[in-house]
Amino acid sequence: MISYLQIENLTKSHGDRMIFSDVTFGINQGDKIALIAKNGTGKTTLLRCIAGSESVDSGKITPRKDLKIGFLEQTPDLPEGMTVGDFTGGDDRLKRLLTQMEVYESDALIETLSGGQRKRLAIARVIADQPDLLILDEPTNHLDMKTKDILKQAIKDFDGTVIVVSHDREFLDGLVEKVYEFGGGLVRECLGGIYEFLEKKRISSLHELELSKSTGKSEASKTVKTEQAKSDSEPTAAKPRLSYAEQREREKTLRRLQKKVQEAEAEISRLEAEIAAIEAELAAGSTDSELYRRHADTTKALENAMSIWELASMDVDEFGG
After folding, report:
1. Fewer CB atoms near the end CB (10 Å): N or C, the chain?
2. In what order do the strands lie in the sheet with 58-63?
3. Residue 240, pLDDT above cutoff 70
4. Percent of the chain having pLDDT more than 90?
5. Dihedral over Cα of 251, 257, 263, 269: its sign
6. Confidence at residue 71, expressed as pLDDT on a 0 to 100 scale
7. Closest to 177 in 3D by CA, of 25, 4, 3, 30
């Protein structure tokens, strides 16, 4: 089967910080893939590189000729000051998708839509553009069950190739046929759906991956790119013993890094609660324009807090915490 997209030795860093390195894998026509990774491993950055919205430091991304990519980011950028009807224009395909996804308010300003409606509008726009490859980054964040079901059906009806990042096992169940586990520069392929992946990993939810120090290697997984492991017989150099003062300083630094992660987690929880409260008021029929402004500002603040959390988590991992 001809590869739709081949990724070879991809490396990306932010300043002095290495996000990922030497990533290699391929995407085939018709694949429906879940890309699974711990938070802080750079999966969003990897998606942006594949979609072409971020550059890479080295390596090569080779798409099939004329491959059209549609990318739905976690927080879609939609125009304000425009009605849903104006946004659809004369695109009958988009209008049909929006009807199926229950976004009816053609006269409503986009900024007055609920978070779920805005997400439906964004994904309908991406699918209506008829990409060959659809990339979705955490599409179910902050959505209720009904909206998740509508989005899932729209993606199942999409006849192209799909890469989706999500921690929602119910959403992924029946939607994907392969799971790619990403971590430490490696991408490991597990044939089968999300529950087969969880069974092989001996975990019950994707959030349990966060409890492990590394992604590990499943015996049943097929390695797309293998590590070059040291021979068991090769002697390993003993680490130098730290002095009492050095050990105390190390513990102090680790506590400071962990505190930064905890503060970011608390801020994320606070902002998520604030967004939920705003959306509850909007769902109750409030037309207060200040609520829409607060919703947009808080959503941007949440995105920033999540970026801070991701970088702080990487600091802790790199430090050995």
Report:
1. N
2. 17-28, 3-14, 58-63
3. no
4. 15
5. negative
6. 94
7. 30
